[in-house]
Design a protein that fits this description.
The protein is mostly helical and 406 residues long. The chain has one domain: Na+/H+ antiporter like fold, CATH 1.20.1530. It has 17 helices and no strands. Helix 4 crosses helix 12 and helix 8 runs parallel beside helix 15. The model has no long low-confidence stretch (mean pLDDT 82).
């Protein structure tokens, strides 16, 4: 079947899945993923594993734009108000997930140290796309929503850092590398530092070019070109494309007064890619892995979820966060997807002896969390009373306009 025809089928099927999900009060993301699962090799075989690989550019574009959009949440004025609190909450929920998953794997299932530390580090990252899309779909606004977005962004930054350190420690424990300890520590530090520097430089350039754009079309072209350049340079230089795009978005939102025009122009273009990305993610999941992961895969899922919820609760309580944040933040941090799958590829390259076992468990976890995670995110913002919060604020402004200056 022609590739364009398959892409068209995936797009239409994903759109229908999203509509059906809305009809039964579920997030659109869940519908995309379930429809993708139906199209994939587990059921109809309309989309094969080879097809998913050949369409990987779609996933790269979607993840890069998602990372860039997340960067817009790091406005320095807002970070000064909640920065320390968000940092503490994120650090504790990341440590909670890593600590509990490592304990379950190493002490509970008696797995090797290298295996346990690497798979534990991969439990830290949250799939930002699913959570972000749920928040946008339900026009959520309030203390919980304002905490979720920066926490999800920092969560991925910490997750990438934790994974880089874990891989280095795992290699040391297995003595599979001739590198010295300083060299092995230097590699993840260089990856993180290089990503931060490259993102900052590109963010400065993008902010200057965007100011000269005369219309929305020019803004869109410039912004998408910058995102593509950031992704390509990161991959070429061995940096993290995700982290680079987050920093580029962060730099731009703090340097450009009307940066919302840039982010808006990108979001107008990217919606079909979101549908394709999540539907293809569903198609990449293989129900056949259910038989092979056994009890350890199930334990990983509960350990990761429990670690995130306990860590988020401790973190929110330690900074005296508002009650909705303490109660429901952990539920909104459960989705797991693109980042974890990307890290699995790195495991195959750098720790091949454990690649099959780790990838199998991670894919099983993605299968569960990518379908259920958006539902839990919706429950969290619903219980916090923040659904349609954007609309309520707009209505309040209309009813009580600010007095005009004299």
């Amino acid at each position: 079947m022609d590739a364009l025809l398959k892409i068209s089928i995936v797009l239409v099927a994903g759109f229908i899945g999203g509509k059906l999900a809305k009809m039964i009060k579920l997030p659109s993301v869940s519908g995309y993923l379930v429809i993708g699962l139906l199209l994939g090799p587990s059921l109809t075989h309309l989309i094969t594993a080879t097809d998913v690989d050949s369409f990987s550019i779609i996933s790269e574009i979607a993840l890069a734009v998602i990372a860039f959009s997340i960067g817009s949440e790091f406005l320095l004025a807002d970070i000064r108000k909640v920065g320390k609190s968000v940092l503490i909450i994120t650090l504790l929920e990341v440590l909670g997930a890593i600590g509990i998953v490592f304990s379950v794997m190493y002490f509970g299932f008696q797995q090797p140290f290298a295996f346990s530390i690497v798979i534990a580090s991969m439990s830290a990252a949250t799939a930002p796309a699913a959570t972000l899309l749920v928040i946008r779909q339900y026009r959520s606004h309030g203390p919980l929503t304002k905490t979720i977005l920066p926490v999800v962004a920092l969560d991925d930054v910490f997750g990438i850092m934790a994974f880089g350190i874990a891989i280095s420690v795992a290699k040391l424990s297995l003595s599979t590398s001739d590198l010295s300890l300083p060299q092995m520590i230097f590699e993840p530090v260089m990856e993180i530092g290089g990503s931060l520097l490259l993102g900052a430089i590109l963010g400065i350039i993008l902010s200057k070019l965007s100011k000269k754009a005369s219309n929305r079309d020019e803004l869109q072209v410039i912004s998408l070109a910058a995102i593509g350049l950031a992704t390509a340079l990161s991959k070429t230089m061995g940096f993290s494309p995700l982290l680079t795009n987050i920093v580029m978005g962060t730099t731009m939102v703090n340097l450009m007064k009307h940066s919302s025009r840039v982010f808006g122009s990108v979001n107008d273009f990217i919606s079909p890619f979101y549908v394709l990305f999540f539907t293809l993610a569903g198609a990449s999941l293989d129900l056949g892995i259910l038989a092979s992961v056994g009890l350890m895969g199930v334990a990983y899922i509960f350990a990761r979820g429990g670690g995130k919820m306990v860590g988020a609760w401790i973190g929110a309580r330690s900074v005296n966060a508002e009650k909705p944040v303490r109660r429901y933040l952990g539920l909104a941090l459960l989705p797991q997807g693109g980042i974890s799958i990307g890290l699995s590829v790195l495991v195959r390259q750098q720790l091949p002896e454990y690649a099959i076992a780790i990838t199998t468990i991670i894919m099983f976890s993605v299968l569960i969390y990518e379908v259920s995670g958006p539902i839990f995110a919706k429950i969290a913002i619903q219980k916090a009373g923040e659904i349609d919060g954007v609309d309520r604020i707009s209505e309040a402004v209309k009813l009580n306009p600010l007095p005009s200056e004299t």
